[in-house]
Amino acid sequence: MEIFNTSYLINSLVYSFLGVIVFWVSFIVIDKFTPYNLWREIVEEKNMSLAIVVASMCLGIALIVASAIHG
Prior knowledge:
This protein has helices at residues 6-33, 38-43, 48-70. It is an all-alpha fold.
């Protein structure tokens, strides 16, 4: 009986890496569709409302990616 299975570790790392890539690509696509630069508005202009909307969008995308990887 093997206590530590390396294939599980490799699979987790690969899926984590792919999930992060999908997350960032989707964030960039959404950033391109908006009429302004999301990062500049949040960081430089301190737009708290936009930060909350972007945070909820990030959580939604993260849930979709996690469900796709898990299912």
